[in-house]
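pinging the channel bc i need a second pair of eyes. not urgent but kinda urgent?? the chain im working w is below, pasted from the shared doc
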Amino acid sequence: MDTYTSKARRTRWRLSWHDPFIRSLVYQVLIVGLVGMGVWYLVSNTLHNLAVRNISTGFGFWSREAGFAIGESSIPYSPQDTYGRAIVVGLVNTLKVSVIGIVAATLLGTVLGVARLSKNWLINRLASVYVEVMRNVPLLIQLFFWYALITESMPGPRQAWNPISGVFLSNRGLKTPALVGGGLDWIVAGLGIAILIIVLLAHWARKRQERSGQIFPLMRTAGVLLVLCPLASWWLAGAPLEVEIPELKGFNFVNGLSFSPELAALLAGLITYTSAFIAEVVRAGIQAVNKGQWEAAEALGLSRARLMRLVILPQALRVIIPPMTSQFLNLTKNSSLAVAIGYPDIVSVVNTTLNQTGQAIEGILIIMAAYLSVSLSISLFMNWYNKRIALVER
């Protein structure tokens, strides 16, 4: 037996063009070599052309003074800061739009998806019209529409709408009161602690329900924790905290929290456009649940809301999550259209940087790396969650 095995092994590794393994190995080496030569040619040709035109290469500009202002920044920034700081500001702005857009579009899309299955004729038709209109109008057109609506139809700062005390809406954006002072950091820390407790509590509640069948009031408990933990952190720290009210000075408002027209238009366009696609994903996921599950839940006497929340949606998630991941990625990548309406996302900031420095290739690489990193992060998280809720065969 050993003699036969060793003989077969020697026959298998004999160098012969008729051996499929040898042929596939040669083809793969040739393809890798051709790709390597193509990459080497492109890189060397690019470096040669840059050298002929006296264009410097590398990321040395990263630490030089930027010298340009950014209209909206979530972190401290001034024109005296470096290009690296400016690019970080653009990345943070992109992340802010992506996170807010994903959360809001998911909530709106879920409501619309459920509404499309409503037995109420009016609700069903309104949701259908919304979905069809939003999906078939290009996103760029929608962004222009929302931007024109906000900047042209809204009154000026002196005639700003004041629906609630301290809140002003005008063609300069939305101004709201803001919390300032050292206590704000403690409130954020308390909020983080509350979220951590809620995650652990949700895990415990699920295990408890699987073991005993008893349902823990997680939603009400989470609401209480989200309020009490930040307040308790602020009270125990004793740090100062003040409410800053917007004030009209000159031709615009100062102080308070500001949402620019560009940010509002970008979020409105991304949310309304993406929610229409998410609605179809949710509708398809709900319809994929076996009819027997609906009948069994109704036989237990569950209300329509509890039936949907406790029985149908948890099962539909297994169908919803994979295509939902694609919609999250689309929203993140579509945020690059912000440059069309003047919102300073990473594309806009890098464009200004490369216009001043001439580092076009490096600038494009930065944009590509930023979107690649964000998209892969979203994909990894959603794939992890998809595996977590997948059915485990016994």
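so Residues 20-52 form the longest helix (33 residues). and Residues 118 and 249 are 50 Å apart (CA to CA). — does that match what u expected or am i reading it wrong
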